[in-house]
Amino acid sequence: MLLALASWLESFYSGFNVFQYLTFRAILGTLTALGIALLVGPGLIRRLVRYQIGQYVRDDGPQTHLSKAGTPTMGGALILVGVAVATVLWSDLTNRFVWTVLLVTLAFGVIGGIDDWLKLTRANSKGLSARAKYLSQSVVGFVAAIVLFASAQLPIETSLIVPFFKTVAVPLGWVFVPLTYCVIVGASNAVNLTDGLDGLAIMPTVLVGGALGVFAYATGHSNFADYLGIPYVPGVGEIVVFCGALVGAGLGFLWFNTYPAQVFMGDVGALALGAALGVIAVVVRQELVLFIMGGVFVVETVSVMLQVASFKLTGRRIFRMAPLHHHFELKGWPEPRVIVRFWIITVVLVLVGLATLKLR
């Protein structure tokens, strides 16, 4: 929106040309989203408390979580507002990738919002049935995958890029659609499963989102892409503005979500943020790198799958409780220790992911 205005004003004063630079607009997007989150956050929390939109805590979870009952939830809406406003203000609204990423994020936010609302109105932690939630996610995921496949302008946009190998690009054809669906829906649910402690999910999301912004910038820049040996996808660099907004809004939310949390993001935030990471990884052609950088999300998800499979097959549990962060809590780790150590692991994994840019 403001990019178009700046382009018009440039004819009167050349200084407005600075808005043509992606890096500058990404910084502005980050600061805008951060400012929105910090300004709107206190008022939103007060309204959530006033209308008694509080978290319902499972009685079969760690006993330390019982004191969190009633903490305002659905705070993820704060993140979505910050991301959406900053993206619309500072990105090129004629870019197809921007609209795809933004609409998928908001669609998953709607699904999560309905789930949160049902939990509140029914006064329990169930919300949408697993079948209804998965069906809704599947519809959005498949639509997004088909749109990306149909709108692809270059063969590389539907090829699988293998990290650490400069020339390995596997043409996927129609396989691109189910793969993209799995990445988007899988990432959405993985972040949702990780969102169990104060600040545990949002900081890894910020770190991975920022790193994907680096990939987006390099992938959308022909010179950098050629130098680094990564695919060049025209127009995808504009996603760096969205990634900046994601980082800014995430940090703003963390201001209120850090231990002890004043507000929880709820499914409205967790499902949306996971989907955002998934669809960004797809458009920048780095699905496998997302698997590396989002290792904490992956391990949390795998821990649940192993726990369920083991209990059904043998009647025994592998972990004291799943997802994995609850296992460490029940082993006696204080909640802040679990959170910060998972953050540190994410920093290391993100650095490994970024290293794939050069190690080819």
Give a structural overview.
By secondary structure, the protein is an all-alpha fold. It has 14 helices and two strands, in the order αααααββααααααααα. Strands 1-2 form a two-stranded antiparallel ribbon. A hairpin with a 7-residue loop joins strand 1 (159-161) and strand 2. Helix 3 runs antiparallel to helix 4, helix 5 (130-151) packs across helix 6 (176-194) and helix 6 (176-194) packs antiparallel against helix 10. The protein is globular and about 65 Å long. The chain starts with a helix and ends in a 5-residue tail after the last helix. The model has no long low-confidence stretch (mean pLDDT 89).
In short:
With 360 residues, the protein is mainly alpha-helical. The protein has helices at 2-9, 22-50, 76-90, 96-121, 130-151, 176-194, 202-219, 222-228, 239-257, 266-283, 287-293, 295-314, 324-330, 335-355; strands at residues 159-161, 169-171.
Mean pLDDT: 89
**Tally of alpha and pi helices:** 14
- Major sheet size, sense and barrel closure: 2 strands, antiparallel
Quaternary organization:
single chain
State the helicity in percent bands: 55-70%
User: What Rg do the Cα atoms give?
Assistant: 20 Å
Order of helices and strands: HHHHHEEHHHHHHHHH
Give the CA-CA distance, first to last residue: 38 Å
Strand content: under 5%
Q: What is the overall silhouette? A: globular
The number of distinct β-strands equals: 2
Unreliable parts: none
* Class by SSE composition: mainly alpha
Outline the secondary-structure elements.
Layout: H1 2-9, H2 22-50, H3 76-90, H4 96-121, H5 130-151, E1 159-161, E2 169-171, H6 176-194, H7 202-219, H8 222-228, H9 239-257, H10 266-283, H11 287-293, H12 295-314, H13 324-330, H14 335-355
Antiparallel strand pairs: 1-2
Helix pairs in contact: 2-3, 2-9, 3-4, 3-9, 3-10, 4-5, 4-10, 5-6, 6-10, 6-12, 7-9, 7-10, 7-14, 10-11, 11-14
